[in-house]
Amino acid sequence: MNITILGSGTSQGVPIIGCSCSTCQSSNEKNKRLRASAFIETKGVKILIDTSIDFRQQILRAGITDIDAVLFTHHHVDHIFGMDDLRQINQRLNKFIDIFGNETTMNEISITFRYAFDEELIKYKCVPLININRIKNEPFTFKGIEIIPIEVFHGRIKIFGYRIGKFAYITDCSYIPESEYNKFENLDALVLNSLRRAPHPTHFNLEQAVEKAELFKAKETFFTHITHDLEHEQVNSELPDYIKLSYDGLKINIKD
Known about the structure:
Layout: E1 2-7, E2 37-42, E3 45-49, H1 55-62, E4 69-71, H2 77-80, H3 87-93, E5 97-101, H4 103-112, H5 119-123, E6 130-134, E7 140-142, E8 145-154, E9 157-164, E10 167-170, E11 189-193, H6 206-216, E12 220-224, H7 232-238, E13 243-245, E14 251-253
Parallel strand pairs: 3-4, 4-5, 5-6, 10-11, 11-12, 12-13
Antiparallel strand pairs: 1-2, 1-14, 2-3, 7-8, 8-9, 9-10
């Protein structure tokens, strides 16, 4: 399994517009963060997690030319607004793309992208061609790959993280019910959100993310959905060896 972190930034991205802080002005490429998203290729199946606002830029940079499915964590703007750019894959490969998410997420995407369901526009392939799959908090299989949703809370709303094999991805989380803890057992790699140092009502801060990383004990944990408060090199120097900030373009490889 090969995983690419396409974006490691919070909803504002880094640098933040108009900000002159040392992280936003840094020349270190690992401090330049597009909105959070990841790409997984396993057994020939290509799976995207979230179509971020920066989706077009991300897949061009990563050299991604095909996607079989999109796993949506939730419906907030920074995680879905790039979906229109699936059109280029639809048109070039003459295929529909399966998208997955909980009932709320799929309903909101259906409203936001309502033009994508216009039969006339679908016929001419000038909208994203998608098959909506409303999933529950139960394992399912896509093209022979088992995908395990992980139900967590983003403030008051229930959203999904996902586990595939020995890899799990959680973003925009502020609380993980104990009933979901078993889904974090025996991970080789965990990607987990860590917004900033100060507490936040709808996201883990750095302290909380470290606490969860130490609890779940994945072989490696990488933090994502990071704001400019966390300078890459400085924060990494404070963390245990098996916990690090992710960065745009990070490659994670997991053997079967």
